[in-house]
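[recover] target loaded
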């Protein structure tokens, strides 16, 4: 057993009317080593959502109108409540929930780190002034 007590899961939590769809993919349990190869497809593969998550949804015996859509993504508050995510846990939601706008990668990175509460633990040079960033890298 190692000292990495991380419970690392990917999930889809969506709803349609009064029905909720919850699918969890466990990538690592506390005490287990993280295997990057196991994480790659669910986290980076564009096909994962379509081939796996959507296929699971299509095979579910839903009663509401899921046949016309794949549901509405649950908001952060309801997701944390349903999934049992504590305030001390790191939750990474949709880009909008993470305050990612897509206009400036550096601003998005800062906003993301701030949102998950680790901005003060990771020091990233300011890239606003590109010349200053190059100077920092030369040192």
């Amino acid at each position: 057993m190692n000292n990495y007590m991380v419970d690392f899961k990917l999930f889809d939590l969506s709803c349609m009317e009064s029905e909720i769809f919850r699918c969890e993919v466990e990538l690592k349990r506390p005490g287990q080593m993280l295997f990057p190869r196991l994480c790659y497809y669910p986290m980076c593969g564009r096909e994962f959502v379509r081939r796996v998550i959507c296929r699971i949804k299509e095979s579910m015996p839903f009663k509401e109108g899921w046949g016309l859509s794949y549901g509405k993504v649950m908001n952060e508050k309801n997701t944390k409540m349903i999934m049992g995510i504590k305030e001390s846990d790191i939750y990474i939601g949709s880009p909008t929930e993470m305050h990612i706008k897509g206009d400036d990668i550096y601003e998005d990175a800062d906003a993301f780190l701030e949102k998950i509460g680790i901005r003060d633990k990771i020091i990233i040079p300011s890239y606003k002034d590109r010349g200053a960033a190059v100077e920092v890298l030369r040192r």
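[recover] notes: Residues 9 and 99 are 21 Å apart (CA to CA).
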